[in-house]
Amino acid sequence: QVDAVRVYVKSSSENLQYPVLFVVRQQKGVLSWQVPLIFRGLYQRTYNYQEVSRTLCPSEPTPERGPSDQIIFVDVSSMAPFNITYELLVTRLENFQLETNKAFNFTASPSQPQYFLYKFPQDVDSVIIKVVSDAVYPCSVVSVQDIVCPVYDLDHNVEFNGVYQSMTKQAAITVQRKDFPGEQFFVVFVIKPEDYACGGSVPSSIHGNVNRTWNLQRTKNLQVTIVPSIKKSVYIQAMFFSFLGFLSFYLGSVVVAFVHYIRVRRKASAGRLSPEDGSGIRTSSHPITASTPEGSSYGAIDESSSSGGRQLSSPERGLPAGSDTDSSVEEESDFDTMPEIESDKNVIRTKVFLYLSDLSRKDRRIVSKKYKIYFWNIITIAVFYALPVIQLVITYQTVVNVTGNQDICYYNFLCAHPLGVLSAFNNILSNVGHMLLGFLFLLIVLRRDILHRRAMEMKDVYTLDYGIPKHFGLFYAMGIALMMEGVLSACYHVCPNYSNFQFDTSFMYMIAGLCMLKLYQTRHPDINASAYSAYASFAVVICLAVLGVVFGKNDMWFWIIFSMIHVLASLALSTQIYYMGRFKIDGPDSDLGIFRRAAMVLYTDCIQQCSRPMYMDRMVLLIVGNLVNWSFAIFGLVYRPRDFASYILGIFICNLLLYLAFYIIMKLRSSEKLLPIPLFCIVATAVVWAAALYFFFQTLSSWEETPAESREKNRPCILLGFFDDHDVWHFLSAAALFFSFLVLLTLDDDLDAVRRDKIPVF
């Protein structure tokens, strides 16, 4: 048993010019202070305390002397020209050593800090120090220090040694045996003289009651409990759970592919091979019958010009699919291969009823090359984005480990399991799902791409008129984006804080944007955005997100500008979608030509045909979409949410869900079918997203608040004693994104035996 002595002093003098000086001399050190004890706060405010209580550095019993033999000298002096009365009391602490799994209650104040000793039991390698209080204020600091004298237990020096964190109602520090060679440490509790560090009020000026005596006005009741942390076996179980859980998706994919292969082989052996081989590729030729799509009387085009495949048969005939990258002509990705395409593009795209053949007239090889740029560009972006991010978070983690300041990173400290130099390995491990499922999606897309190329080599050129055009560049980009979301989310969770939150959301913006682009590209392959303009748009969004994090808290001017940009961008994009990219503000050469053209379009399309727009379905979608986006803009302008990055992500996700719902409704309305696999993926997506969002909204920390306020939200682990709610969100969101990607990949597999001039565009 270690003995400790506590010295209590009190003086009636409030004269700061002549304080009473106390010097305590021990065998191993000297401790000194003055009364009144002065603490300094913000703006050089001072707080004086007439009562001071300090615990002296303890001494362990030795064989030469008993446990209670300690020689202590206390020197009391003052330069005051008058007598000063003081009170001195020396007591022996009965409960100086903390015990495992046993709560201990005590009281502390700025002038009366407390610290206690804890020794590791033989079978415990890691413990969690849990501290709770019923009162939010006064703000306090919990510190873990090695057995070294003197102990730093005052507000101005508690940060000089060990690991520490600020606290309001709750704090938790994980301590490992390997960090303390003596297998013991001090737990120090300091009450701060002001509360601004914990989110309290900030002193308004430098003027204050300089001679005011505080004494016992800032006392705080605390309870400390030290419990064993998890064992190494739990780490192993958690890693097996993480990897095997997602590797089961690989097994499921192999089973589905094998079952499909068996079905195709049986049909082939029976001589009744289906027009599609399950990969979305036709494998048999059908005679092409010329027919004019119904409802295409406006700007009607005959069959020879509305079937892109037939008109493009000349350049493609005799060229195998494997020669996509062999032709130097294909290096140009932004021009049309049909000489007359510009002359009839306006006529085709402004028909009342559009069919896929009207919007798939470009050379298939050129369009595929164009969409592959998405894949190569996102790889370049990922490398240049990820490398400095990794370097930065390594620096953050190093600073935390060297300084011991646990207020830098916003962990869930009640479920933060360290490994090596990492403070919260569980939050990093839970992102493995994004990387594994992103790679699996790339393999699935690669399989479809290979089967598509083989089928193209074998089939008749006229069958190009059937099904949705197969361009896989965007799918590859989506897979890379999912993997990078896992990498950057893991980087963010190395040290989550205000400065690096955009790492966790940047690729989420890109995933949502790529999904919308892919959904639009499905039936508009010739008029989708180029990779350069798409990624430039994402760059603008990320810039706005950074500006929002910096200026979006209280600056009204930023929200006004952002809301205007949001509304104008929605209107501009809606116009391009409504007119299939053929809306142009051109007119006479006069300065008023642009305005005259805009007024004419507004009058003819919005006033004359208000009751019956030319493109009703598109109009309904765009009206609903604009209402949603304007609602977001108004909400942001009124409430100015502090989490601006999540606010923008919400805008992207809502627009994606709205467009996906519209697409599926229009698909069913057009008498198209949902095959079992896409139907299963849709149901799985809805169920998993619902479960994931439930855990997402279980807030466990918040960098929008002070570190002490954020710790009030901390909660224990809920899965395997290793993962918390946010880790479960990582697992489920990875699966939900994977199923979402499969929905986009398989949604139109039912159209592989349908002529393109029979597939409607919406």
UniProtKB/TrEMBL annotation:
Where are the bilayer-spanning segments?
A: 238-262, 374-394, 428-446, 474-495, 501-520, 532-551, 557-579, 619-638, 644-665, 677-697, 728-747
Q: Which GO terms describe its molecular function?
A: double-stranded RNA binding; RNA transmembrane transporter activity
Q: How does it sit in the membrane?
A: Multi-pass membrane protein
This entry carries the following GO cellular component terms, namely:
lysosome; plasma membrane
Q: Where is the composition biased (Low complexity)?
A: 304-314
Residue segments, region Disordered: 272-336
Cellular localisation? Membrane
In terms of superkingdom, the source organism counts as Eukaryota
| Record keywords | Glycoprotein, Membrane, Signal, Transmembrane, Transmembrane helix
* Listed Polar residues bias regions: 281-295
Keyword S-adenosyl-L-methionine listed? The answer is: no
Q: Where is the composition biased (Acidic residues)?
A: 327-336
Q: Do you know which InterPro entries this protein is assigned to?
A: SID1_TM_fam
Similarity comment: Belongs to the SID1 family.
Q: What is this protein called?
A: SIDT1 protein
* Taxonomic source organism: Oceanodroma tethys (Wedge-rumped storm-petrel)
